[in-house]
Amino acid sequence: MRLGKRALMGAAALWLMPLGAGAQDRPSDVFVLGTIVITAEGEQNQGGTSSTVSGEEVLRQNRVTLDDALRTVPGVAIGNTGGSRNERLVYVRGFDRLQVPLSIDGIRVYLPADNRLDYGRFLTPDLAEIQVQKGYVSVLNGPGGMGGALNLATRQPSKPFEGEARLGVEAGNRGDIAARSGYLSLGTRQQDFYLQGSYLRRDSDGFYLSRDFVPRPQQGAGLREFADTDDSRLNLKAGWTPNATDEYVLSYTRQTGAKRAPYNIDLPMRGRPETGGPSGAQRDWTWPEWDIDSLAFYSHTELGGGYLKTRAYYNRFDNLLSAWDDSTQSSQTQRRAFNSHYNDRSWGGSAEAGVDLGSANTLRGALHYRRDRHVSLQHNAPDGANTFDPAETSDEETISVALENTWAAREDLSVIAGISYDRAEVLKADRTAGDPGLATGATDAVNWQLAAIYDHDSGEYHASISSRTRFPTLHERYSTRFGSAVPNPELKSERATHVEVGYGGDLGPATIRSALFYSKVKDMIHSVPVGDPAEDLVQSQNVGDGTYKGFEIAANWQIAPDLGLAANYTWLHRGVSDPVRPGFRPTDTPRHSAFLRLDWQAGESLTVSPSVEVYSSRLSESAVQTGGDLDIDYTRMAGFALANLDFDWQATDRASVVFGVRNLLDRNYQLVEGFPEPGRSFYLTTRMTF
């Protein structure tokens, strides 16, 4: 008996795949026009390193949010902002959410004000695969890929009629139901068109803490307070395929979210005198709305010896942040209470074309344009003074022009060179009906890259060097941060130069993927104290430099006909220098991380998969700061290991049940000081296909 296909996918999803697993290697349900450039039209390696997580693997391990789905990918670390926002973070080789753009079906998800994406708001059940690019990112993808790129590729139908339905529950270590989820997908593919629709929702009461957690006035035992969330996503597609090569698609995605933010378990809370009183109390914030809409058009047209791909989109982001009087979150009468509304819009498009120049060269070019509009409205003390600040509007325009050439120097050697020019211009900044707003400005950058790929009988070898930038956000340029910061309209872009060598191939019975990487970061944007020290003001400035270096290796080995092994290890070292704050240190990423998983087909219909995640210690900014803006206090969070156990039972050809245990040993651990992570949890998901 050979190891079943679904079990093998569990191992394959963890490979450190070279940036060139072509379209022919993808599952047939991937929406190909919504993928990012990890290959040149699905055939040619682009010279970097990527990982792909399949939708099947996400299901089998019950990793229902984006951050959780990526936590076992080599080179990726998961974090948490802590504080009053308590947002889930993803780091790619040490680069954060501002330096690694996120896209859904190739359309970037960009929040015009501050781009503070909360990866916990992005659900995974409707995804065909998650693409992760590391370091080297093709200039054809557009601006912003300073440290990598993430793309959520949704599904498209492959049969005349197909459907899938799932129902799932999650429970804590005390047996109580903590979350409920549902997913429905329907699709049809006919000779010259296809239709696809899906809807999913997850309603969570929060999570249960480890039984080793010591209760305190801020947080009792059991359910983590104020951690409840409610998220959903609707995805609709209509595609026209007039022939075997051309495709035209209209797509609509609506994502809704609502959440509260747990409090730091070590700091005072308003409304709970037993925690220490109002002095130094935490903010009482919730997000009743965290909604994204995207309407997009995609096309691919073959033009003789070349091709033309276009995308056009209109995105909308509606966000409501509510600040309350105290932790009861029942009234908004005080001066610190407010409702902050963001009504943001983005529209734009891109065109990519390619043509063969003789038998050895393929030239590709891309043009990107995006216009972002941020509108903010502040409603002060809705239950008290009930006043409104004037609506503020900011507009920004971004363009990118890119060229990339692939030269087949020999049958087994390809050289890829690319260059792009990016420009971002702020057209309006905090403009109101009676005020022209703040000073505007523009910044530009040239990006370049060079890669070589050698395809030998022993495997594939690649080497690359690239230099990429990311522009500052409106928040970094203009936010006064509740009166504590000075705007800097002249803020420039950050830049990272990456050098990487890698190998992928078979070594004996195992398939190995490895990469050695080094990144030099310049002009990092940090907050710097300015003006009179008594005023305690800061300003965003390009003052930091850093080096990120590391090594990744992943292996996949079929030990026996019914037993498969997947493993990966990452070593990452980050160093940052700040001449204004000599003690500044990077946080939130462990030096060492590893993942090991076995897939054992215990019977024709049952796969058992134990796994373990191991992380070394990491630094976190201390919850209580005593040194002021020039001297940040840090706390070292202890390393930890998590054991998991997953079961996949194929009850019939069309019905299956996946169930299992996460954090099997109920480990009590934290990623950020004062914010404990989930203890032992159980899950069960039933799936029907038709």
Overview of this structure, please?
By secondary structure, the protein is mainly β. Helix content is 3%, strand content 55%. It has a 22-stranded antiparallel beta barrel. A 5-stranded mixed β-sheet has the order 3-8-9-6-7. A two-stranded antiparallel sheet has the order 1-2. Strand 18 (361-380) and strand 19 (387-388) form a beta hairpin. The longest helix is centred in the N-terminal third of the chain and has 8 residues, at 5-12. The chain is globular and about 70 Å long. The two termini are 27 Å apart. 46% of the residues are buried.
Gyration radius, rounded? 25 Å
In quaternary terms, these chains amount to single chain
Strand content: over 45%
Beginning-to-end CA distance, first to last residue: 27 Å
Average of the residue pLDDT scores? 92
Low-confidence stretches: 1-26, 39-44
How is the main sheet built? 22 strands, antiparallel, barrel
Layout of strands and helices, then pairs:
Blueprint: H1 5-12, E1 39-40, E2 44-45, E3 49-54, H2 55-60, H3 66-70, E4 76-80, E5 88-92, E6 102-104, E7 107-108, E8 127-134, E9 148-154, E10 162-171, E11 177-189, E12 193-204, E13 229-240, E14 247-260, E15 285-303, E16 306-323, E17 338-357, E18 361-380, E19 387-388, E20 392-410, E21 413-431, E22 442-456, E23 459-470, H4 474-478, E24 494-507, E25 510-530, E26 537-560, E27 563-577, E28 592-603, E29 606-615, E30 618-621, E31 634-637, E32 640-649, E33 655-662, E34 670-672, E35 675-676, E36 681-689
Parallel strand pairs: 6-9
Antiparallel strand pairs: 1-2, 3-8, 4-5, 6-7, 8-9, 10-11, 10-36, 11-12, 12-13, 13-14, 14-15, 15-16, 16-17, 17-18, 18-19, 18-20, 20-21, 21-22, 22-23, 23-24, 24-25, 25-26, 26-27, 27-28, 28-29, 29-32, 30-31, 32-33, 33-36, 34-35
